From TrEMBL:
<protein>
    <submittedName>
        <fullName>IS200/IS605 family transposase</fullName>
    </submittedName>
</protein>
<dbReference type="Pfam" id="PF01797">
    <property type="entry name" value="Y1_Tnp"/>
</dbReference>
<dbReference type="InterPro" id="IPR002686">
    <property type="entry name" value="Transposase_17"/>
</dbReference>
<dbReference type="InterPro" id="IPR036515">
    <property type="entry name" value="Transposase_17_sf"/>
</dbReference>
<feature type="domain" description="Transposase IS200-like">
    <location>
        <begin position="1"/>
        <end position="121"/>
    </location>
</feature>
Length: 125
């Protein structure tokens, strides 16, 4: 048995504040669906300030963190553009997400602190 946990953060291109409640709700559904399809677990998912995403994930060692991020950003970006084509206007050319991301592994000691931090992300739209 393995307990490999990650805290991931990535942002919308140009930090555009486009993650409104309706978009966030669909994004959360997509993230859970992707996790189920690809074999990892999303424990927490929050959008912060309408322009970035926090994700708390557990995955088996065979799934690399780069693969997980690629699935999450790639699939959600494509599907959000399909469902909400109007957000493309705010992003000029190209993708929804910034190319970079932040990730850290989480030991069981800091898990509670990470949970608290993600749960208290500000919700100012």
């Amino acid at each position: 048995m393995c307990n490999i946990n990650y805290h991931m953060v990535w942002s919308v291109k140009y930090r555009r504040k486009i993650l409104k409640p309706e978009i966030e709700e669909y994004l959360q559904e997509l993230v859970q669906q992707i996790a189920e399809d690809k074999g990892f677990t999303v424990h927490l998912f929050e959008c912060g300030e309408g322009d970035h995403v926090h994700c708390f994930v557990s995955a088996p060692p065979k799934l690399s963190i780069t693969a997980i991020v690629k699935y999450l950003k790639g699939i959600t970006g494509r599907k959000l553009f399909e469902r909400f084509p109007e957000i493309k206007n705010q992003l000029w050319k190209g993708g929804l997400w910034n190319h970079s991301y932040y990730v850290e592994t989480i030991g069981s000691v800091s898990e509670e602190n990470i949970r608290r931090y993600i749960e208290h992300q500000s919700k100012s739209y």
